[in-house]
Amino acid sequence: MSPDRLTIVVAAYNEAEALPLLHPRISDALARVENLDARVLYVDDGSRDGTWRALQAIAADPRVSLLRLSRNFGKEAALTAGLDHVEDGAAALILDADGQDPPELIPQFVAQWRQGYDDVHGTRVERAGESWLKRATAHGFYRLIGRLSKTPIPQDTGDFRLLSPRAVAALRQLRERHRFMKGLFGWIGFKTVAIPYSRESRAAGRSKFGFWKLWNFALEGITSFSTAPLRAATYLGLATALVAFLYAVWIVLKALLWGDAVAGWPTMMAVILFLGGVQLIALGLIGEYLGRLYEESKQRPLYLVDRWQAASGVSSEPG
Ligand code: UDP
Ligand code: MG
Fold it and tell me: What ipTM does this complex have?
């Protein structure tokens, strides 16, 4: 029987300290899986520290190939680049460079894949080294997007997952610029299974995702996978219009019954400001979607490759 082919895809941005700790762990984990033709593909997402140099040292391992992007395109694009360079017919396992997704679970992932699952994903049951606030907001976000989106998006699941060859091929067809990976994984469907694990804290370095970035990430997720906010704006407009109408009726009645003493400046200001605010919110919302439409319409490539270094143990070109 020919061995199953698997490529571990690791996106790294300024991870010079973490990578040398990670690779031996991957190596050990792979050694524990039988009948597997494994490769490791590191994507340097335009790092500004010694990441590329660290990767050169790691590439002494004949199974390792390296890809360097022309600049920092962000994790989602880096992962896309990685998946694009996985050989045709091989499965892919996505792993964070900082050791937060334990490589020790690789044998378990492979076992599930061999059971016939196309998307084996790690679900965090515990998150070490992350603040109460981050955990709470993350939880709230998964609940919200679960409600809003028609695409199934598993809770507390990151990019840590193994994709079967056909799932990789499917994902490659999704070329949108605003890449909310969790949603894209859900969109392709197929048979999925979750592997619970407790998320450790970073092995080295610090998180690249601050609150502002996470907030934008959440917006990305919601706007990419749901148009519910647009509909909400419509209802908000309807509700305000109704309230405004009732209030108008009341004002007219009051003037007819008790006369009009020409006061009313505060109420007028309040109504104008309120309506103005509601209109701006609705407009901003439409703008969010329109902006994304504009970005999408430009059809730019998702990333540019600066360098591709194939594994020394393989001669073939990537798929
Ligand atoms: N990453 C990347 N490009 C970026 C930001 C992050 O490739 O622009 C990688 C990073 O090197 C790491 C993974 O994405 O392997 C997750 O990043 P991080 O640990 O900072 O996120 P967190 O675990 O805090 O959500
Ligand atoms: Mg991390």
Answer: 0.91
Cα-to-centroid distance, 97 and ligand 2 (Å): 7
Nearest residue CA, atom 14 of ligand 1?
A: 75
Cβ–Cβ < 8 Å for 12, 79: no
Task: Tell how far the Cα of 11 is from the centroid of ligand 1, in angstroms.
Answer: 7
* Alpha carbon 48 to its chain's center: 22
CB 250 near ligand 1, within 6 Å: no
Please give all residues whose CB falls under 5 A of ion ligand 2, grouped by chain where several chains appear: 98, 100
The tens digit of pLDDT for each residue in 142-160 reads 888 777 777 777 777 778 8
Residue 234 burial by CB count (10 A; 0-12/13-18/19+): exposed, middle or buried?
Answer: exposed
Q: Is the CB of 97 under 6 A from ligand 1?
A: yes
Q: Which pTM does this prediction carry?
A: 0.72
Paired tokens of 136 = 């709470």
Query: At 300, phi and psi to the nearest 5?
Result: -75, 155
pLDDT digits (tens, 9 = 90+) for 59-105: 888 999 999 999 999 888 999 999 999 988 899 999 999 888 889 99
Alpha-carbon torsion 98, 103, 108, 113, what sign? positive
The CA distance from 48 to 46, in Å, is 7
How is domain 4-225+302-309 classified at the architecture level of CATH?
Alpha-Beta Complex (3.90)
Helix extents (H) in the chain? 19-31, 51-58, 75-84, 106-114, 132-148, 165-172, 181-188, 211-225, 228-258, 265-297
Identify which ligand lies nearest to the alpha carbon of 303: 1
Q: Would you say the CB of residue 101 lies under 6 angstroms from ligand 1?
A: no
Atom of ligand 1 nearest to the CA of 15: 11
Q: Is 76 in the pocket of ligand 1 (CB under 6 A)?
A: no
Q: How confident is the model at residue 113 (pLDDT cuts 50, 70, 90)?
A: very high
